[in-house]
Amino acid sequence: MYSIVLVDDHAIVREGFKRLIEMEPDLEVVAECRSADDAVEAVTQQRPHLVALDLSLPDGSGLPLIEHLRSVADETRIVVLSMHDGEPYVSEALRRGASGYVTKGVAPEELVAGLRAVMLGECFLSSDLRQRRAERPGNVLDPIHRLTTREREVFLLLAVGRAPKQVAAELGIGQKTVYIHRASLMGKLGAGSELDLYRMASERGLLPSRDNKN
Questions:
Q1: pTM of the full structure
Q2: Contact, 68 vs 38, CB < 8 A?
Q3: Residue ranges per structural domain of the chain
Q4: Which class in CATH covers the domain with range 2-135?
Q5: HEC profile for 38-102?
Q6: Is the Cβ–Cβ distance between 85 and 57 less than 8 Å?
Q7: Partner of 126 for a Cys bridge, out of 32, 102, 141, 211, CB 3.0 to 4.6 A?
Q8: What is the model's pLDDT at position 8?
Q9: CA distances from 204 to 5, 87, 142, 201 (A)
């Protein structure tokens, strides 16, 4: 029996995924978490085979949580399950240690397929992500690829309208540090304002849809 921890801040979403997963005779959800703190506690206690992790959590981004969970239980594999279907979310999640990425827009059976593939040691991307990568191979000339990990995090938050003070609180860094990262990333991207950042993020499909904040 494979044990799975679900991490999503929406109870209805968790319940739907749980029912889907537990239709499989060898898969069991051993814990449900709504926050990053809950996830760390559950993974520390349960040592599950796998974590299905959303990226948008009330106490922070799921991206740094991937690394934290791997440090807590390096044998636990992680599959991101998110509405974010663009770069740099996907590449960042995989770089930080996720073994799979499934978007919430694909057919439900792809989640189970992804969980099984990852448990077999494979790296899994949902069909929409595979198609997009096939149609648009990685563009090394995209200036976003020049950003550091922290600059990318600041970029994404500024692009969706977060004030520097909010960015500092969400990332757990000083406001002065946010301004330093902001100046650096705007120089690398050739941006003159937050409106430019919004446009760049929008053109690359990095902005969450207005009718779904998760």
A1: 0.64
A2: no
A3: 2-135, 143-203
A4: alpha beta
A5: HHHHHHHHHCCCEEEECCEECCEEHHHHHHHHHHHCCCCEEEEEECCCCCCHHHHHHHCCCCEEE
A6: no
A7: 102
A8: 95
A9: 31, 7, 10, 5
